[in-house]
Specification:
Length: about 475
C-alpha cells in the first residue's frame, strides 16, 4: 500500500465498537501552546478576550516561563514593556495595543490619556499606557531570563540595556512612593498591587466616593460571571481613584488611598537582590543594592509584621494603622532570604493552618483567609487561589528548607493548572476554573515548574545574595 494514501473516511450512521481517543498532549506542550496563542510578535497578552493588551507583572511572570521555550521571546517580552517606561522611572501597568478596539477593555487609552495627562511625569508620546504601576517583579524576571541563555543575552546586550531602566524603576518606587515615611513603597490604587479586589482594600476604599455607574462601562463582564468579578460599587471606587490620579497629572502623594503592601515590597526586595546580581554580571558595584534589600527587609518586618496574626499585614498609610485582614499578600515575604528564621517558621505554620489550609483543606493557597467574613471561593481575589501567588509560595517554602511542602504544592499547582485548562484562578477547595481559561501566567509558571530543576536555589535570591557577598 502507498504509505502516502489517505485513509478513507469512516462511514456515517454506524455504531463504532472501539475507537480509542487520541491521547491528550503533554502538559508542557499545552502550556507552550497557550503562550503561542497569546503572542503578538512583541509581547504576550494574558488573555485574548479579557485582557487583550500587555500587562506589567503578567509579562514578568510570562517571561519567566517563556525562557524555557524561547529565551529570545522572553527577552523581547521584557524589552517591549521597558520601552514604554515613563521618564520618571515608572513602568506602567498596561501598555496598550493600538490595533485593539477601544471598547474591548476598560479603562481604555482614552480614559488614561497618558501622553497628555502624564506629560509632566514623562509619559511616552509614541505609545499609550495606563498611569499606575504593578508589583516590581521585573528585575528578578530579567535575571532568570538571562540565565536561560547567557550567551544570547550577552550577544544582544540584554542586561546592558535593561539594567538602567530597571534601576530607574526602583528609584521611582523608593523615592516617589515612600508615602508613609518608613522606607516602604505605597500603592495608590488597588490595581497597582495586582490583587485588585482583596478585602485588604475594603477599609481604605470606604473613604472613596465611587464614580457614577453611568460614567463607565465594564468590559470585564462581557467575559466573566458577575459573581466572579468585583462589584459595581468597588469598580466605581477604582474608577474614581484612577480619575483623580490622572487629573492631577499622575503626581504622587498621599491621597484617599495609600497602602503599604507586604507582597509588593517583598517583590521589590527580591528584585533588588536580582539587580545586585545583574550589576555584578555587568562589572558594576553591587553591595549597595544588597544592603538596600536588607534594609527594606528590616523595614518590612518593623512596619508590617503582626505577631498575633502570624503573618504580615497591609498598612493603611492615611489611617496610620495595620489592616486586620489575612490575605495571601502577607505570606509572600516567605520568598525573602533575610527573613528572620522565627518569622519564616511562623509563616509556614500560618499557610498550613486553618486560615489558608495548605496540605489540609485546600488544594492551593487561597487569596484570602478561609475563616474571614469576606471569604468567597469564586469572587476575584476574595478567596480563589491564583497560580502566581502559589508559585511564589512554592519558591519561598523551598528557599526556607520546606522541601516536602514545596514538592506537594508544586504537584498541586501542576495538576490544577492542567485540569482547569490553565485557568486565571480557581476555587481553592475544588480546583474549579474561574475567570478566563488559557491564561498567560498560569501557562508560563506551569512551564517553569515543569522544568524541574532547583531553580530557586540556583537562580533565585539565595544565589544572588551569595554571589554578591562572595
Amino acid at each position: 500500500m502507498d504509505s502516502t494514501a489517505q485513509r478513507a473516511p469512516r462511514p456515517t450512521g454506524r455504531t463504532v465498537a472501539y475507537d480509542p481517543s487520541i491521547p491528550a498532549p503533554p502538559l508542557h506542550v499545552r502550556a507552550a501552546a497557550v503562550l503561542e496563542a497569546g503572542w503578538t510578535g512583541t509581547s504576550t497578552v494574558p488573555s485574548r478576550g479579557l485582557y487583550p493588551h500587555q500587562w506589567s507583572w503578567d509579562s514578568a511572570f510570562i517571561a519567566i516561563g517563556l525562557r524555557h521555550v524561547s529565551p529570545l521571546r522572553a527577552q523581547t517580552e521584557l524589552e517591549t514593556l521597558l520601552a514604554a517606561q515613563w521618564a520618571d522611572g515608572r513602568i506602567p501597568h498596561i501598555v496598550f495595543n493600538p490595533s485593539v478596539p477601544l471598547d474591548a477593555y476598560f479603562p481604555s487609552p482614552d480614559f488614561w490619556r497618558s501622553s497628555a495627562a502624564g506629560r509632566a511625569a514623562g509619559a511616552p508620546r509614541t505609545v499609550q499606557t495606563s498611569g499606575i504601576v504593578q508589583p516590581p517583579v521585573h528585575a528578578l524576571a530579567a535575571w532568570l531570563v538571562h540565565l536561560a541563555d547567557p550567551g544570547l543575552s550577552r550577544a544582544r546586550g540584554f542586561l546592558t540595556r535593561a539594567y538602567p531602566r530597571l534601576a530607574a524603576w526602583h528609584r521611582y518606587l523608593l523615592h516617589r512612593r515612600d508615602l508613609g515615611g518608613g522606607g516602604l513603597v505605597s500603592v495608590v490604587h488597588p490595581w497597582e498591587q495586582g490583587m485588585d479586589n482583596s478585602p485588604c482594600w475594603d477599609r481604605p476604599l470606604s473613604r472613596v466616593t465611587p464614580a457614577p455607574a453611568r460614567s463607565f462601562r465594564r468590559a470585564d463582564l462581557d467575559h466573566g460571571s458577575p459573581e466572579d468579578r468585583p462589584t459595581d460599587l468597588d469598580y466605581g471606587r477604582y474608577v474614581r481613584l484612577a480619575t483623580d490620579y490622572r487629573d492631577r497629572g499622575y503626581a504622587d502623594g498621599p491621597g484617599d488611598f495609600a497602602v503599604e503592601d507586604p507582597a509588593f515590597n517583598a517583590l521589590l526586595i527580591a528584585s533588588e537582590y536580582a539587580l545586585a546580581r545583574i550589576a555584578r554580571e555587568l562589572g558594576a558595584a553591587a553591595p549597595a543594592r544588597q544592603h538596600r534589600a536588607e534594609r527594606l527587609t528590616d523595614a518590612l518586618v518593623e512596619r508590617l509584621w503582626e505577631p498575633s496574626a502570624g503573618m504580615f499585614l497591609c498598612r493603611d498609610v492615611r489611617a496610620g494603622e495595620l489592616i486586620p485582614e489575612r490575605c495571601v499578600s502577607g505570606l509572600v515575604p516567605l520568598l525573602l532570604p533575610d527573613l528572620p528564621r522565627d518569622l519564616a517558621a511562623t509563616l509556614v505554620r500560618t499557610v498550613c493552618g486553618p486560615h489558608f489550609g495548605l496540605g489540609g483543606t485546600t488544594r492551593l493557597v487561597p487569596s484570602y483567609d478561609l475563616l474571614g467574613d469576606a471569604f468567597d471561593p469564586h469572587r476575584y481575589w476574595r478567596g480563589p487561589a491564583w497560580f502566581n501567588t502559589n508559585w511564589l509560595l512554592e519558591r519561598g517554602l523551598r528557599l526556607h528548607g520546606e522541601r516536602g511542602r514545596a514538592d506537594a504544592l508544586r504537584r498541586g499547582i501542576l495538576h490544577t493548572a492542567g485540569a482547569s485548562d490553565f485557568a486565571e484562578y480557581v476555587d481553592p477547595y475544588t480546583g474549579q476554573a474561574c475567570g478566563a481559561t488559557g491564561f498567560g501566567w498560569t501557562a508560563a509558571l506551569t512551564l517553569d515548574l515543569l522544568h524541574d530543576r532547583p531553580a530557586w536555589d540556583k537562580d533565585g535570591v539565595t544565589a544572588i545574595k551569595g554571589e554578591v557577598r562572595g
